[in-house]
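REQUEST FORM: STRUCTURE PREDICTION
Request ID: SP-0412
Submitted by: Lab K.M.
Chain count: 1
Length (residues): 253
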Amino acid sequence: MNKASFLKKACICLSVFLCLFALFLKLKDEITVSNTVNGRELPIYCVQTDEKKIALTFDAAWGNEDTAKILEILRKHNVHVTFFMTGGWVESYPEDVKAILADGHDLGNHSENHKNMSQLSDGECREELQKVHDKVKNLTGYDMFLFRPPYGDYDNHVITNAKALGYYTIQWDVDSLDWKDYGVNDIIDRVCNHKALGNGSIILCHNGAKYTAEALDTLIARLKESGYTFVPLSELIYRDHYHMNTEGRQIQD
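STATUS: Completed
RESULT:
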């Protein structure tokens, strides 16, 4: 084999190697951005982090009497959170949607009609998300990318359909159970002493629950005294290069 032929074959081999290596990197990236655990698609229940930061979230599906008070308390403590809103809530309270965004909070999708998403078809799932997305986009210009299924109800097809629309599906690992109306002290104690509370926790509250606004000031103060920093979900979760463990904990690769 002459020198020219050798160099030509060497260049071809090098090109093939580089193409295969680039493909490997692409596939590696796709694999490490995964919600699949043992064949199941999991939402994000919490996040693995060495930082003592947590996310406070509010589901907004009914009622609006306390939204202004909640926003006032959040401003007082300089805390930013995430509000998950249904389509009906967005339609009924557009000025509050704008106020939430103006205060620096995340806007999240809680579906159009608050149905059990696992019982819907693929098309119905996507419609439930897209309708709210379009309403918020038209109202505020904001593109939502965080989705919480109503009732915490999900299965594989709910998560994959949400993902196809650019959404991260979010659950929680600390439930205030504020909707059960057990009282102010119960909300505070239940969250602050919750066995799952820790770095990267996601706390579930509701803006329309009877005692939530009244409990919020002390709840935030207590958690801050424990050393926690509040961040909205957009700053807590990993947007790429992650996988999930069996607990639904998001882990960065």
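NOTES: Residues 18-31 have pLDDT under 50 and may be disordered.
Reviewed by: T.R.
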